[in-house]
Design a protein that fits this description.
It is rod-shaped and about 55 Å long. It is about 55% helix and about 0% strand. The protein is built from one helix and no strands.
């Protein structure tokens, strides 16, 4: 592989990893948001609203 191919491959892998991490975090937030209220612990600093959309959490 030449330098240009390696560079494009590195950029592609970096973007794929970044999107994967973002997707995993968004999926985890949605899973926590959809839990019944009995299973969630809510302190004042870290409270996940149960009626909000993902856009409202940004």
């Amino acid at each position: 592989m030449n330098i240009k191919t390696r560079r494009y491959l590195a950029i592609f892998i970096t973007c794929a990893v970044t999107l994967g991490l973002y997707g995993a975090a968004a999926w985890r937030v949605e899973q926590l948001r959809n839990l019944p209220r009995d299973y969630t612990s809510c302190s004042f600093e870290h409270c996940i609203p149960h009626n909000a959309t993902l856009d409202a959490l940004r």
